[in-house]
Amino acid sequence: xxxxxxxxxxxxxxxxxxxxxxxxxxxxxxxxxxxxxxxxxxxxxxxxxxxxxxxxxxxxxxxxxxxxxxxxxxxxxxxxxxxxxxxxxxxxxxxxxxxxxxxxxxxxxxxxxxxxxxx
Length: 119
Known about the structure:
Layout: E1 3-7, E2 10-12, E3 18-25, E4 33-39, E5 46-51, E6 57-59, E7 67-72, E8 77-82, E9 91-101, E10 104-109, E11 113-117
Parallel strand pairs: 2-11
Antiparallel strand pairs: 1-3, 3-8, 4-5, 4-9, 5-6, 7-8, 9-10, 9-11
C-alpha cells in the first residue's frame, strides 16, 4: 500500500522557518521523482520544489533561495526546508511521488499539511 505522510506544518510568523517532512512507503522510493506542491485558497495547486531520482533539483521562482528540497533514501523521507517565510507562502503543502516507466505513469499524493504564515 502506497503512503505519503506529510508533517511539520504549522503557524509561523513572517521571516520564520519550518521544515516539512514526508514519509514514503509502499513503493521503490529511490526510483521516483519527489516533489512538494502547494495550494492556497482559491488558487490552483503549484509545484514548489522537485527532486529527480538522480538528484537534480528545481524550484519555483517564488521560493528560490528560501526553500530547499532534500531526501534521505535510506529512511524514505523527503524534506522541504523553508526559511524567510512570507505571507504568500500560506497554503496546504503536498508531497508527490512520480515515476514514468514502461509506458505507465505512477503518481502518488499525500494528504497535505497546512502552513500558515501570519503575524
